[in-house]
Every structure is written in structure tokens, then in C-alpha cells.
């Protein structure tokens, strides 16, 4: 029996055993985020809604509290706390209305209007305040990965990677897909009264699992009147979650497959971009500090698979909700102002859906490792196995030979890793030309915009970014400066 005194003693000991406030510091970070609430893909001309704008803004505000605010424990060392410094931050999104606008909304939360702090004094002594209560301009550059992704319902429409297209198409020829298609046929047909204004009877199947879920999910959020949402009583929460589970399975299998890593090309490109950006932070002793990129859920799924996150939780085989985000942080316990890379580690965080207030994303272990902080050298080793970091490697892994790959095909691409060795072993024997046709059939609403056409004809370029923001679109001089910065 313990006396009251010994309980008190135990409590005191427990207090003492708490870790001392660690001197851990964040030196830099990379954020990859999904857009907010939008209109349904199948209806075309997809756009961000006010709700979606609010979601990305809130998420951006939470990251402001985490990485930008001085008093935060995860404040990025040396990052400007109030007025943005363009050299410390870079932001990007594909050419896509929903993703570009989401990036802008997020950045408004990340660096909110600075009011009277955002003033300049001119030579003649008068002061000027920036418009909109000191609004801060942050250019959003364009990544060629994922152009028009929110207008396309099939992820490989935007990848232009031949072996990835073949690999994803293999899913539609698999026994797994067949059995799902058969076992859910009656279920999808039973939803005809909900779907028949937009889908034909033959389209009401597992084949369109995501597009159907997306269409009904959007309606369940926005369509208020019974005339805009006939038979809405059929969409019980049971039906909703079944549609979601089916869409999750469908999309995860298209985005990732253990035996065919090339299917996850979008995740490989992201892994390469993260590696390059964080390495650049280290190489410049922290001159560039924060990168923000917006992209589609399929890129999350591809990355989750490659980083072995589904082994941590089955949640990672499911589509992240709107305004979800993941972040890779460079962290250290060293007291050196900018430590050697041997004293730097990487921590991975993810949050499903909108971050609000002081909520922070959760830390997860990467690459099946037992620790939550991965020494930089280990992070580089593991990431290199899944990442695509150069045009030549991309051409080699994807098997593309035209456009920007014309000359790379002859190069031996000796830098390629185990990744490309097992890449794209298409067993189904579907030819590339046919694969493209199947892809197009799967797509309900192929909006072949000019950009897509350009990519198909002109080839696909990784890593090259052009500045195209609402702020600097017209300024050629500034884009030049920006690209100079990027090549540093
Ligand atoms: C943040 O910290 C820096 C350096 O310690 C200081 O100069 C700056 O005024 C602080 N900003 C705010 C908003 O507290
Ligand atoms: C100071 O210069 C600015 C910009 O040229 C001009 O708009 C403003 O009227 C000037 N103010 C005075 C007091 O001369
Ligand atoms: C990977 O893809 C192949 C071919 O599409 C399929 O047979 C296999 O079941 C898939 N593996 C998993 C784990 O889904
Ligand atoms: C699915 O149904 C079709 C036609 O009903 C049948 O030919 C096929 O064998 C079935 N596939 C499976 C995996 O049950
Ligand atoms: C859709 O199905 C409902 C219920 O079966 C029917 O009343 C309606 O006319 C159908 N609408 C169209 C466009 O076919
Ligand atoms: C929701 O409303 C939009 C716009 O009125 C309409 O196009 C769409 O078909 C509706 N969705 C459903 C599931 O009825
Ligand atoms: C990191 O940057 C340094 C210096 O630019 C370069 O030598 C090295 O190859 C880079 N490492 C990776 C993994 O990209
Ligand atoms: C998985 O998702 C559920 C429900 O959203 C959540 O409660 C749980 O914590 C998640 N698991 C992990 C490991 O994140
Ligand atoms: C996010 O939450 C949705 C349910 O809202 C779930 O289906 C999905 O698996 C989750 N994704 C991740 C990556 O946690
Ligand atoms: C810093 O030290 C704390 C306490 O020992 C530890 O939990 C944490 O993982 C360390 N962080 C890094 C980046 O090594
Ligand atoms: C390919 O290489 C040849 C000879 O080195 C060069 O003339 C040509 O411009 C290159 N083509 C492309 C698309 O890079």
C-alpha cells in the first residue's frame, strides 16, 4: 500500500522524468498540399469554391503559426516573421485553376497582410502602404507535373510518362479490378436516380469509382434544394462511406503498385523535388528556407506508397481530404548556427484535411524506419531509391523517347537506381498506343487544353519552372531574375 506521501513523491518523480524542453530547431521545410473544396470534376471547368478558399487559407494560417511566428517551437530559424522575403520562400503549382488559386489562398494565410508594417518611405519623405491592408505578394511558379490535374479524372493523363500509363492501365486488366467491377455492379446501378443526369447507365460502375464519389460528395456539400439534388435520400451515410472506400481502392491501385514503382511516377518526382529543395537549404546554409507546392491527391497516394506509409496505417491507402498537407522538416539539436549535415535530420508530418487554429500535423516514420527523425544521410539514401531527379532519369524510367527525351534515350542513365531497374515491367502486353486509348476511355471528361496538347507534342520537361503568377505574369525581367535564383 502506498501512502499519500509516496503518491506525491511519485508524482514529483514523474514530473522530473519529463524531457527537458529540447533545444530542437527547424532549419527549413517543404510543404506539399492539396487544394480546397472545389466543383465536381465530371461537370468540367473545375474551380475552387469559397469554402475551398477558406480551407486552404486556414491551413496556410496554421503553418504561419507553426513555421513563421517567432514564438513557435517549430519556427524556421531566421525566417522573416512578418514581412515575407522572396529569397527565403518559393511556391509552385501546376497550370490548373484550382491548384493555382489554392496556392495563392494558402500563401495569404502563411504571410497575412502586414498592415502598416508593409510601408516604404520614399526619397521625398512620403510613405506608401501596400494595397489591401499591406497585402504581401508571393509569386507562384508553374510546375509542369500535373498540368490541368483537377480537370482530368485520371492521374496519368497529366503524367505523360509512357511506362506509368501502361502500368496504371494494367490495373484495369487485373483480376482484382475485375472482381471489384463485378461485385459492385448492382450497387452502382442502384444509384441511378442520383446519377442519371450526368452518367449513362454503362458509366455507372466501379470503373468510374472516383468520378462518381466526387460528383456525389460535391453535391452532398453544395446542392441544397431537392431539385438540385434529386433522390438525395438514397445517399445515406452507409452508401457514402461505401462509395468512398471503393474510390479509395480504385485510386490507390492506379497511383501505386508494389511491383511496378513506375506507376507512382508522380510521387517519385515529388520525392526528387523535396530532396533537391532540402539539399539546397543545407548547401546554402539556410538561405532558402521554405518551399510550398500544391498538387493533386494522386501525388499524395503515389508518395505514400513509395515511402511505405501504408505499413504505418491503412489510412495512407485512402485519398487525403481537401486541404490536406504533408511537410518535411530539417531539424537539429546542434547549437551551431547552421550545423553540418551530419547533425541534421528529417521529420515527416501529415494532416488529413484542413488544419485549423493551433492544430499541428502528425509526425509519421518514413521508409519503414523505426524512428520519427531520420538522419539526413539516411533520408538521402532512402529517397534516392524512389526519387526521379533529372530529365535523363525521367526519360529512362518512363521509356519516353520523343520530345525532350530525344537525346536522353542513348545516354546510359547510369545514375539510375534500383528504382528504374524494376520499373515498368508491363506484363499485360498492352501496347503504348492502345494504353493511351484505354486511358482516354476511362476518362469521362478529357479536357484536352492547349497546355496538355503542348505537353504531348512538345514533350515533358521536369524541373524547369517558369514564373507565372498573377503578380509577375507580365514582367519578363522578374521571371528572368527568378529563374536565375532557381538555378543557384
Ligand atoms: C522576431 O525575432 C526577431 C529576431 O529575434 C526580431 O528582430 C523580430 O522583431 C521578431 N518579430 C516579432 C514579430 O516578434
Ligand atoms: C513623393 O513621390 C511620390 C512618387 O513619385 C509621389 O506620388 C508623391 O506625390 C510625392 N509626395 C510629395 C509630398 O511630393
Ligand atoms: C500490382 O499490379 C499487378 C498488375 O496490375 C497486379 O497483378 C497485382 O495484384 C498488383 N499488386 C498489388 C499489391 O496490388
Ligand atoms: C465478371 O462478370 C463477367 C460477366 O458477367 C464474367 O464474364 C467474368 O468472368 C466475371 N469476372 C469475375 C472475376 O468474376
Ligand atoms: C433519373 O431517374 C429517375 C428515377 O428513376 C427518373 O424519375 C428520372 O426521369 C431519370 N432522369 C433522367 C434524366 O433520366
Ligand atoms: C448538384 O448541382 C449541380 C449544379 O446545379 C448539378 O449540375 C449536379 O448535377 C447536382 N448534383 C447532383 C448529384 O444532383
Ligand atoms: C546536394 O547539394 C550539393 C551541393 O550543391 C551537391 O554536391 C550534392 O550532390 C547534392 N546532393 C543531393 C542528394 O542532391
Ligand atoms: C486513421 O484515421 C482515423 C480516422 O480518421 C484516426 O482516428 C486515426 O488516428 C488514424 N490513424 C493514424 C495512424 O493516423
Ligand atoms: C483521410 O480521411 C479520409 C476520410 O475522411 C479517409 O478515407 C482517408 O483514408 C484518409 N487519408 C489519409 C491519408 O489519412
Ligand atoms: C533532440 O533531442 C530530443 C531529446 O533527446 C530527441 O527526442 C529528438 O529526437 C532530438 N532531435 C533530433 C533532430 O535529433
Ligand atoms: C540532340 O543532339 C544533337 C547532337 O548532339 C543536337 O544537334 C540536337 O540539337 C539535340 N536535340 C535535342 C532535342 O536536344
From TrEMBL:
Q: Which InterPro entries match?
A: His_Pase_clade-2, His_PPase_superfam, Histidine_acid_phosphatase
| Assigned keywords, A-Z | Membrane, Signal, Transmembrane, Transmembrane helix
Q: Which GO terms describe its molecular function?
A: phosphatase activity
Compositional bias ranges of the Basic and acidic residues kind: 473-488
* Record field: transmembrane: 433-457
A Pfam family per the record:
His_Phos_2
The signal peptide here is: 1-23
Its family remark reads: Belongs to the histidine acid phosphatase family.
Q: Which PANTHER family match?
A: ACID PHOSPHATASE-RELATED, PHOSPHOGLYCERATE MUTASE-LIKE PROTEIN
Protein name listed in UniProt: Uncharacterized protein
Species, as recorded:
Penicilliopsis zonata CBS 506.65
Provide the organism lineage as a comma list. Answer: Eukaryota, Fungi, Dikarya, Ascomycota, Pezizomycotina
Amino acid at each position: 500500500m502506498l501512502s499519500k506521501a509516496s503518491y506525491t513523491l511519485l508524482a514529483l518523480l514523474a514530473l522530473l522524468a519529463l524531457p527537458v524542453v529540447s533545444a530542437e530547431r527547424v532549419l527549413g521545410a517543404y510543404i506539399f498540399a492539396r487544394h480546397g473544396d472545389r466543383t465536381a470534376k465530371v461537370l468540367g471547368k473545375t474551380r475552387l469554391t469559397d469554402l475551398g478558399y477558406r480551407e486552404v487559407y486556414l491551413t496556410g494560417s496554421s503553418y504561419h503559426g507553426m513555421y513563421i511566428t517567432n514564438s513557435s517551437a517549430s519556427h524556421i530559424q531566421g525566417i522573416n516573421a512578418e514581412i515575407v522575403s522572396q529569397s527565403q520562400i518559393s511556391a509552385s503549382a501546376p497550370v490548373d485553376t484550382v491548384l493555382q488559386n489554392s496556392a495563392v489562398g494558402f500563401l495569404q494565410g502563411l504571410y497575412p497582410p502586414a498592415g502598416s508594417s508593409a510601408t516604404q518611405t520614399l526619397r521625398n519623405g512620403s510613405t506608401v502602404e501596400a494595397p489591401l491592408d499591406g497585402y504581401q505578394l508571393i509569386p507562384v511558379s508553374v510546375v509542369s507535373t500535373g498540368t490541368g490535374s483537377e480537370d482530368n479524372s485520371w492521374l496519368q493523363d497529366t503524367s505523360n510518362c509512357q511506362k506509368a500509363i501502361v502500368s496504371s492501365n494494367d490495373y484495369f486488366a487485373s483480376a482484382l479490378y475485375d472482381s471489384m467491377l463485378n461485385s459492385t455492379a448492382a450497387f452502382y446501378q442502384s444509384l441511378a436516380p442520383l446519377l442519371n443526369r450526368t452518367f449513362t447507365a454503362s458509366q455507372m460502375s466501379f470503373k468510374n469509382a472516383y468520378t462518381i464519389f466526387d460528383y456525389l460528395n460535391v453535391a452532398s456539400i453544395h446542392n441544397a434544394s431537392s431539385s438540385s439534388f434529386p433522390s438525395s435520400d438514397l445517399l445515406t451515410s452507409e452508401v457514402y462511406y461505401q462509395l468512398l472506400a471503393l474510390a479509395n481502392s480504385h485510386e490507390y491501385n492506379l497511383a501505386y503498385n508494389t511491383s511496378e514503382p513506375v506507376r507512382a511516377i508522380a510521387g517519385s518526382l515529388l520525392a526528387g523535388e523535396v530532396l533537391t529543395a532540402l539539399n539546397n537549404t543545407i548547401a546554402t546554409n539556410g538561405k532558402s528556407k521554405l518551399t510550398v507546392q500544391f498538387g493533386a491527391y494522386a501525388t499524395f497516394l503515389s508518395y505514400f506508397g513509395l515511402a511505405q506509409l501504408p505499413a504505418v496505417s491503412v489510412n495512407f491507402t485512402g485519398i487525403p481530404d481537401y486541404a490536406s498537407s504533408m511537410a518535411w522538416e530539417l531539424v537539429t539539436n546542434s547549437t551551431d548556427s547552421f550545423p553540418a549535415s551530419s547533425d541534421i535530420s528529417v521529420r515527416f508530418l501529415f494532416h488529413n484535411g484542413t488544419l485549423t487554429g493551433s492544430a499541428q500535423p502528425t509526425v509519421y516514420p518514413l521508409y519503414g524506419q523505426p524512428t520519427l527523425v531520420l538522419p539526413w544521410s539516411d533520408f538521402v539514401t532512402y529517397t534516392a531509391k524512389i526519387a526521379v531527379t533529372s530529365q535523363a532519369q525521367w526519360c529512362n524510367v518512363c521509356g519516353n523517347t520523343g520530345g525532350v527525351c530525344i537525346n536522353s534515350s542513348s545516354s546510359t542513365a547510369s545514375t539510375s537506381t534500383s528504382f528504374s531497374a524494376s520499373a515498368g515491367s508491363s506484363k499485360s502486353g498492352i501496347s503504348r498506343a492502345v494504353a493511351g486509348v484505354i486511358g482516354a476511355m476511362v476518362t469521362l471528361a478529357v479536357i484536352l487544353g492547349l497546355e496538355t496538347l503542348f505537353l504531348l507534342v512538345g514533350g515533358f520537361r521536369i524541373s524547369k519552372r517558369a514564373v507565372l503568377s498573377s503578380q509577375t505574369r507580365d514582367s519578363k525581367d522578374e521571371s528572368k531574375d527568378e529563374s536565375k535564383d532557381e538555378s543557384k
